[in-house]
Write a structure and sequence with these properties.
The chain is mostly helical. The chain is 75% helix and 0% strand. The chain is built from 8 helices and no strands.
Length: 255
Amino acid sequence: MSTVHSASPVNRVPEVTLSFWLIKLMAVTMGETAADYLAVNLGFGLTTTSLIMTAVLIGALVLQFGQKRYVPWSYWLAVVLISIVGTLVTDNLVDNFGVPLIVTTILFTVALAVTFLLWFRSEGTLSIHAIFTTRREAYYWLAILFTFALGTAAGDLVAEQFGLGYLATGILFGMIIASLSAGYFLLGLDPILGFWLVYIFTRPLGASFGDLLSQPAQYGGLGLGTVVTSALFLSAIAVIVASMSFGRDDRDCPT
C-alpha cells in the first residue's frame, strides 16, 4: 500500500537576512520621502494622496496574496507601498485631524499590541517563519502597517516635538537597534520579539535619515530633495530585488 506524502507548506514571506534588513531600511526611507513628494511637491495634498496610494496598495496586496508563496518583487512592492501609506496615515491624523504625536504613538502601539494578541490567540504563534495561510498573512500585513504608522509617529515625536533633530534621532534609534541585536546574539533575546521590535525601530531610523537627506538646510537637512532621495533608494531597492528574483530561491523553510 503506497503512502501519499502531502507537500510541505510554503512560507509566503522572506528569510530574515542582511539583505532583508537593508531593503526594509531603504523602503522606509523612501516611504517617508515619497509620501512628502506626492503630498507636497506634486500638490496632491494629504487626503488625495492617501486615497490614491491606499488604492494602489490594495491592488498590490491582492497581487501579493494571490502568489501563495514568497515572490521578491511582489512582496517588496507591497512593503514599499505600505511604508508610504503608513506614513500618510500618521500624517493625516496629525496634520488633518490635529491628533498630537504622543497620542498617535500610543494609539498605534495599542493597535499593534491588539493585532499581535488576536494573531496569537487565533494561530498560536507569531512566527514569521510560518506564514502558510491567508489568515496568517493578513495578520502579518496588518502588523506591518501598524509598525510603519507607529514608527512614523514615534520618529516625528522624537525628532520634531522633542527637538532632537533628524540626525540625533537617527543615531538614537540606530543605538536602540544595535542594543536589540546585541540582546539577540549575546543575551538570548526571544527572536520573534526581537524581530518585531527591530522592525518597528527601523521605521523612525529610516525616516530620520530620509528627512536628513531630503529636507532643506534651514530645517536641519542636507537639501537633496524628495525626488533625488526617493529615486536613489528606489533604484537601490530595484537592483537588490532584481538580484533576488534572478538568483537563488529566498524562501524560508517551514519551522
